[in-house]
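Bit of a strange request maybe. I'm writing a small parser for structure token strings and I need a real example to test against, not something I typed by hand. Could someone generate the tokens for this chain?
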Amino acid sequence: MSEYRIPDDAERAELAAGFAARETARDLYDAKLTADETLSTGTPVSMSGLFAYASGTGLYPDTEIEGALAKSPSLRAAYGKMLAARSVFQFEEARAASDGGPIPRIGQGCAIRYADSTAEPDQIYVIIEIDGDKPPPSQLVLTDAEDVHHRFALPAPRRGIIQMLVARASDLITLLSQPTLEIQLLQ
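Reply from user aminoacidic:
Good idea to test on real output. This should exercise your parser:
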């Protein structure tokens, strides 16, 4: 009888990232590029360029790549898989009904909640609490029902807590109020 060692959390995360990268590469290799998946110069969006953009090493936002992503569902799907491979924490769609404001989310090792600003009534704190030894996230990615990815830079955490003071009317709060939204925190 063979004995197999069960991988620890770090090894499972590394394996998952490797599988996601390989699956994304296969999807991009198999996909036929259309006119929607090209830059305004007429050149196709390269896998390495899209990966650099998803990895945060490319300039953000890049209007050329964003334009191609807006026009191509298959390119958005590949980009989403690349972002998922970088994800430290992930939240699926909200299961509970919302009162119309931003929806708190609780996941394994992480929670997102909100607090009203006492100094400015038109502002709200977005509070991300992180437990455990995972590296702190640097970006918040919100994926809406149309598979459009919205990225926001995060400040450095202090004692496992990230706080952002934002306007209630901001795009971030509008997106966080959607129950169908998927949330990823990236390194």
